[in-house]
Amino acid sequence: MGDLPYGPLTKYRDFATFDWKKMKNFVTTTDVLKFEKVLHDEMLKHPLLYQQQLVTPSLKEQRIITAQKLKVLYQIVEKMMNGKAFKSLEMLSFVNAVFALDVSLGLKYVVNSSMFAGGVLRMGTERHKEIAEQALRGEIYGCVCFSEVAHGTNAQGLRTTATYDLKRKQFILHTPDFEAAKCYICFGMLPLYVLCVNSKRILGKSAEYGIVYANLILPGGENRGIHAFLVKIHDTNLKPYLGITTADLGEKIGANGVDNAIIIFNQYPVPRESLLNQVGDVTEDGKYIANLNNSKEIYQINLKGFSESRVRVLAMTTSYLVKSLTIAIRYAAVRKQFSPSDGQDEVSIIEYQTHQYRLFPYLAMAYVSKIFCQYVFKNVYGMTPLASIAEELHAITSGAKSVIVWLVRDAIQECREACGGHGYLKASGIGEMRNSNDLNCTSEGENHVIIQQTSNWLLKKWPSVLQNQRVKNPLRSIEFVNDAKNILNTKFSSSVMDIDCILNTFKWLTCYMLKTTYEKHQAILKQSSEFHAKNEIQVFHAKTLATVYVQHLMLSVMKEQIADTENTELKKVLSKLFILFGCWCLDKHMMKLYSGGYIINTNAPSLIQETILNVCGELKNEAVALIDAIAHPDFIVNSILGHSDGEVYKHLEAAVFQNPHAFGRPSWWTEILEHQNVFSKL
Amino acid sequence: MGDLPYGPLTKYRDFATFDWKKMKNFVTTTDVLKFEKVLHDEMLKHPLLYQQQLVTPSLKEQRIITAQKLKVLYQIVEKMMNGKAFKSLEMLSFVNAVFALDVSLGLKYVVNSSMFAGGVLRMGTERHKEIAEQALRGEIYGCVCFSEVAHGTNAQGLRTTATYDLKRKQFILHTPDFEAAKCYICFGMLPLYVLCVNSKRILGKSAEYGIVYANLILPGGENRGIHAFLVKIHDTNLKPYLGITTADLGEKIGANGVDNAIIIFNQYPVPRESLLNQVGDVTEDGKYIANLNNSKEIYQINLKGFSESRVRVLAMTTSYLVKSLTIAIRYAAVRKQFSPSDGQDEVSIIEYQTHQYRLFPYLAMAYVSKIFCQYVFKNVYGMTPLASIAEELHAITSGAKSVIVWLVRDAIQECREACGGHGYLKASGIGEMRNSNDLNCTSEGENHVIIQQTSNWLLKKWPSVLQNQRVKNPLRSIEFVNDAKNILNTKFSSSVMDIDCILNTFKWLTCYMLKTTYEKHQAILKQSSEFHAKNEIQVFHAKTLATVYVQHLMLSVMKEQIADTENTELKKVLSKLFILFGCWCLDKHMMKLYSGGYIINTNAPSLIQETILNVCGELKNEAVALIDAIAHPDFIVNSILGHSDGEVYKHLEAAVFQNPHAFGRPSWWTEILEHQNVFSKL
């Protein structure tokens, strides 16, 4: 780990009470740091990956550049891994670096390697394996055709059909109308060429594939529900096969290096073997055979896919959070505004309580989230057989995906505003983070819909409590709920907001929200349907329930991590981060603590708010070093405001002066007269 | 007013209990509707103004197009107004339409006509009038050079100097270093040419001007503080004069049709008469003469400028709100997801309580804000001599700008997410609204800084209350504070959340926040400086104080407006909007109501939350018609999801199929091999 450059940030670095390198080793563990170092060094060899784009290239150029970057990334992965899969924390580290560098690059990689190849391996059998392996090596590019124009998160609403034709012994894929067109397909037209032609790989089977989700219809007309098919989409000349129409979806808010498309199938035949038949198969004579008799097994295969997608989102959203905070906090330490009185020097804006309150709770969250990501990655990609923990993990990842993505959304916006006018410049880099994270709110399960997976799982547990049975939670995320009856009788009585007080308050809050949400649900059920009842408990009950459950779990994981260090300086500052994030979350749940009777005649509200402001004040001298310990390297941060040397104005000056069109008359001034003619009739 | 097209939205339109045309007439008054109709009709004659851009043009093209649009807009204004100024509500209506159509166009127009010309008229004297009038006619284009690279909202920190040179009898403008370079200058290079050459106007004096704010330094070295100068920046060939360096600031998050720039002065001489000398002047022999002896008068001249800028922001942010809601609510009525049970039809997502709760409070706010905008425009541009109300108006507009821009920021994000994956498409139009409004958070006074103007003004009033003196508030925005002692003794005792109950609660809340903020401020002052004390009261006190003050005022204005209608159907639904917005705001202030003792042992929290959900349910059948009554016409909404015909999927299909590059192989597929060569060495 190199030292950081001397400059405007040195003053605040020197204030820190801990060694940022030790903190970095603690938060990211030495093994993973080694992996990260190699990855960064390899990336640095390819300026294409991190060239600063002062002006957004055209859509066409963005896609060509992304494709070229993707090729480089596959080369880097091959060199580093030599065919081996990433270990769980290496995967986390990889997602962390690649998505902060370029969201389009990350998405392209993930769609092919994880969603396509991973999906084929998970849902297919031996006959599909070769294709998945080709994709894993980056030799072919596969897409995933799940969402349709009018249906996304609601899988039951999908309307594409795959009808088994007895005579042809083929499935016939069909799109009934435009509303059922497959949508947001992430194509890989370019990598196909780039990888196959240029890397001297054999073109061979390099047609482009897609996993297509469709209703499996048997010859008699019976609909066996949504199944996945492995389907060739384009030939080697990038032309879609007859019976397939593809069209570009056009520009998006962000991630425009990704060429999202629509696919329409018109009675398109695919071989019987295209069916990814882990779950069930269709015989030559059109009989359906369930390969997994246990619907629970099928469910768990799906849950694994969902959990993998969602922990990836957790990693990327945390990465965006860290990058945005790096920019906002370094700039806040450098930027000075207003003097206490005439003649006195101006004050760095990090000194203002308001500014601390705007940024530091999110800094605390960044630490909590980074540590939480390690926890979920270890569980999803770890040794424990996934089936045994699938449901609880699904509840955790669904809720955490929503809760954390939303908090990061707000954090990035706060960072953007905290950087003032310069935060509005493209060169600040924050706008791009916002656009990248924005995608996460509605993809991989729309947040408002999937957070219900968490509350639904929790609600199913409450009857056990009522019947004095132990609650089954192999990951022990709600082990304390077994003690709910006692917990609900406790009151807030602490005079100081320490780690245990915060966790106890969250335990009470989770039990209280579980109980009241359950009761409200039951009450509505008496007069109405389950569908209606589930909808009517969301706004003020179920959503809060899922939120406090996730926040309690994040803090619990953080507590264990803090207990793991012997270094008292680190322990001290990590505890402050815990307390700040905990109190800041509780402040937003205060009404429930009041109305549920946990807080009666105490000074709890002002205690919590005072703790927030005090800890913010204490962290003022730690913040820059705390960022140093988790920041991406400068070539990834890639922001005039967030460079580790703190030379904000010099970087701004350089960015302005590097712009070839910056000076004097605009390059296009002579074109005006020509344009006159075009528009003069208007 | 034409009828709306038959289609997927007809069902919900038919549900409405009121006539949307009558509502439209009521909310926008017949006079203004006539003006709006002419404006829309004129705009419709120029397809350039509203051509759909499926793909963002290059920065260069965006600027050329914006300049061309600006020319058209000046022609329209000339035709409509024939040299007359807009009346107050016409101005509101104009800003409403132009900014929703194109933020860059709006900014370009406003910078020249209002900020430049208005600034010259406000701060200059007879000798500057001609230039201002040329700008008002669009014959020349002027910019405003206020912010510097390292200072914006803090005007005292500006470092550009204008030193009077006795020998030359000129001011010498100088930029000491890059940090003091003038920044975010909105140039008008193109309009200059377009307007002067093409509209056959005489080129004459058409050099580009800027109002430059600089420290006026007298020959002896005395600094008389920030003054404004009217300065020629470019000659008629668009070349900056010797001694001026200009550079483009580069791409921004949004508003890229505006060519923001940096200006550096290097000992640049300007005539003595350049000084905008309303406030003070410098004689030929270098003496400073204060033209206004009363510092209050000077202050009020500045306040007028600020208030004008800020009410314009209120108009534009409300316009963005309405446009985003139009898109999200129409799409919510059309889009169906999930069936209550197998075999049943899917349900429009507007039927879901969660979705109602996400959108309808903002719909209610849109009505409250539209009416509030009329109130502030009438005051700023109205008959009352501004001086008498300047301070109160400044407090109102500063606070309202922050509070409303932030709420609209959240509203637009909610709309974006409520539109799911399609909301992420450029063609949905919401991303652009977000980028446009984002600017408002940090420009025209950074929100966190200017909201302090409001709390500072309020805090100055509290001593009067303590001393039993009447509080001076010519606009009566805090007239009730005269009764604070009684109000603070009241308790919440209502069993129903009606208009008066909500206003009374807000009155208590404002008095309570005023009292507690004042007391906290005084307590800190005992041990610390004023600078410190002001900073330490912001987070949990002063910001909330300003917020509740603004919200109470918005609701009070809404109440008066509701009282103005005789139509019982309108009255009924407008009251629901009042109640929803009021309760939704109060729900977020509940903790203060609790901890301040206004709510004791009552069911107020659940009453407020139940009211919110019930009114949301009632508004479900009104929402589409409520949007119809305030929506921009389709050519301004310009969204595949928000068209008044509700044919979401047809518009999406058309947008996809109109894209010339949509089909089959990307147009650039043959270029890949060429690109290989460029990158193959990487």
Automatic annotation (TrEMBL), chains A, B:
Active site: 444
Acyl-CoA oxidase C-terminal domain span: 499-674
Subcellular compartments: Peroxisome
Protein keywords: FAD, Fatty acid metabolism, Flavoprotein, Lipid metabolism, Oxidoreductase, Peroxisome
InterPro entries: ACOX_C_alpha1 (IPR055060), Acyl-CoA_Oxase/DH_mid-dom_sf (IPR046373), Acyl-CoA_oxidase (IPR012258), Acyl-CoA_oxidase_C (IPR002655), AcylCo_DH-like_C (IPR036250), AcylCoA_DH/oxidase_NM_dom_sf (IPR009100)
Cofactor: FAD
GO cellular component: peroxisome
Biological or metabolic pathway of the protein: Lipid metabolism
Entry's Gene Ontology molecular function annotations: FAD binding; fatty acid binding; pristanoyl-CoA oxidase activity
Domain Acyl-CoA oxidase C-alpha1 residue range list: 309-459
Domain of life, per lineage: Eukaryota
GO biological-process terms attached to the record: fatty acid beta-oxidation using acyl-CoA oxidase; lipid homeostasis
Binding site for FAD: 188
Family assignment from sequence similarity: Belongs to the acyl-CoA oxidase family.
Protein name per the record: Acyl-coenzyme A oxidase
